[in-house]
Design brief:
alpha/beta; Trp Operon Repressor, Chain A; 5-stranded parallel beta sheet; 6 helices; binds S-adenosylmethionine
């Protein structure tokens, strides 16, 4: 998969050089290109934002740098183009899995008061939100999307890591334990040390159902 990100703050994406995502990029499991929108502005002072028509607080990102960047980087419209936005549909695990099947993604990060609506109408395929709250920019949401989509790309994680995790089967994951057997008076449930895999599976399923009922009953509907 090829992922292209359009942003005014490319340095923020250094976080994706680390850990599992960083290793996956380095070993060529997917490619990530971070493009600075300022490289596409026609403004001689490299401006990419301006005051909102109609008044109001803040600045709005101009359509021209976005349009020029999209046309230069995705001329044949091969990529699924996504504007990260609090107004978009909320990103779910189901959508993450379907996005991981795309060949190319192009992610647009807004900043300030957002992006001129014409850039969204003309150049984006959809808007996705990472939750019902407002961040200062789309960079963290884009990183969230890259991280969770990359987990589903071939060879990034072992296939076992992707089954029975939170949101598969509409359940949250069962509790996990590691050594030591006892910590501050709390012991690892005996069943997990029994070696009886049928019993362990049953315990995990029961725990997952109970936890989901308690924490996220909406998932069970
Ligand atoms: C301060 S926000 C703009 C909010 C906008 N004025 C509104 O009220 O809907 C700046 C940028 O952050 C990004 N952003 C903020 N919250 C987000 C969220 N929950 N999900 C995805 N992107 C978000 C978007 O790219 C947005 O253009």
């Amino acid at each position: 998969m090829k992922i292209t990100v359009l942003t005014l703050f490319p340095e923020m994406f250094a976080a994706l050089d680390e850990s599992i995502v960083g290793r996956a990029r380095k070993s060529g499991k997917f490619s990530l290109e971070i493009k600075n929108l300022r490289d596409y502005t026609e403004d001689r002072h490299l401006k990419c934002d301006d005051y909102p028509f109609g008044g109001g607080a803040g600045m709005v990102m101009m359509a021209q740098p976005v349009g020029s960047a999209v046309e230069a980087l995705d001329p044949m419209h091969r990529a699924r183009r996504i504007y990260l936005s609090p107004k978009g549909k909320t990103l779910t695990q189901e959508r993450v899995i379907s996005l991981s099947e795309e060949e190319e993604l192009l992610l647009l990060c807004g900043h300030y008061e957002g992006v001129d609506q014409r850039a969204i109408d003309l150049f984006m395929d959809e808007e996705l939100s990472i939750g019902d709250y407002v961040l200062t920019g789309g960079e963290l949401p884009a990183m969230v999307l890259v991280d969770c989509v990359s987990r589903y790309l071939d060879g990034v994680l072992s296939p076992e890591s992707l089954v029975q995790e939170s949101f598969s089967d509409n359940l949250l994951e069962y509790p996990q334990y590691t050594r030591p057997v006892e910590y501050r008076g709390l012991r690892v449930p005996e069943v997990l040390r029994s070696g009886n895999h049928a019993e362990i599976d049953r315990w995990r399923r029961e725990q997952a159902e109970a936890l989901t009922k308690k924490m996220r009953p909406d998932l069970l509907k």
